[in-house]
Write a structure and sequence with these properties.
- With 368 residues, this protein is an alpha+beta fold.
- It contains 12 helices and 8 strands.
- The strands form 3 sheets. The chain has a 4-stranded antiparallel sheet with strand order 4-3-6-5, with no helix packed on it.
- The longest helix is centred in the middle third of the chain and has 31 residues.
- The radius of gyration is 24 Å and the shape is globular.
Amino acid sequence: MRKTLKFLVVGVMATTLLAGCGGNSDITEATTPSTTAEESDTTTVSEETETTTEEETTEFTIKDYSNYVSLGEYKGLSVEPIVVTDEEIEERIQQYFRDTIQEGDTVNIDYTGYLDGEAFEGGSAEGDSLTIGSGRFIDGFESGLVGVKIGETVDLNLAFPETYKKNPDMAGKEVVFTVKVNSIDGVVAPEYTLENIKANTEYQTIEEYEQMISEQIYMERNEERMNYLWFQAVSNATISGYPQEEVEAYAQELRSYYEQMAMQYSMDLATLLSANNLTEEAFQAECQEYGESMMNETMVLYSIAAAENMTITDEEYQTEMEKMVESSGMSEEFLTSYYGGEGYIRESMLFTKVVEYIESLAVEKAEE
């Protein structure tokens, strides 16, 4: 699937399809493939770039979708004001300065599984990354780590499910997992002190650090606002039809994405679908729905750009590309190839421009 800088991403289906695929460990209920989705996308983009003509990758025009879409309200949309409270800043600080595991944390752990006192095959790992609450491991494993401190080792008395397709020999067996917590992603230090701020961050005062936290929360809220406004603009439009070739192209991108995912598990797509109780017909319907959803956003994007006489000039393109090069440390040539060509990058820049325009016209609700 080609790379895109827009908010248009593959969402729920990734979780759904991965739920039935185990990793190498006998305790995993669902894992991610050894090659990440990002890496998978990169491979596909490279292949597409080889077969895409120079004209296709560099030409950029505002497409006309007037036969398919009628814009609704996108100016003056109502939004909540962004307010960052002292309580929110304190809560964020408590996430960064602590030494115990909480729900949602991504932790680095070592573990060994024992059956009748003996370590069993497939039940051990070192330096494994686990998100608490992901459901990746058998029941009780992740919840049993909540409250455990960094550096601590705990024994978890668990049992495999009565029905365990991944390894029927372990079904229903009672086991003990000895788990050591190595670290928690995002945790700065155990205690919130000026000494720890200076030692572990670039800030020299508590005031500077808390200002950074406030700005961080504000930016996150602003991104949520932009997503909300864009969703409203798309929802307010009336879609009367689709250019089927473009819908099918998006649908095929999604299909190719999961074909590659299946290959990472050393299986074909049909096996991956079967493992998740999904028929070919149901999957095809999901691909079609995805393609239409992508086209909804694409058609609204270009229609607003046309209505407001927006485009991406060469000067704007080069300015933004220079920012991308500086922030990523990658060359312009690499980024152009990685994101599927100059045309796709310009489209993504247009998306940002349109959403920022919508946000600039939004009306904040009065505080009660």
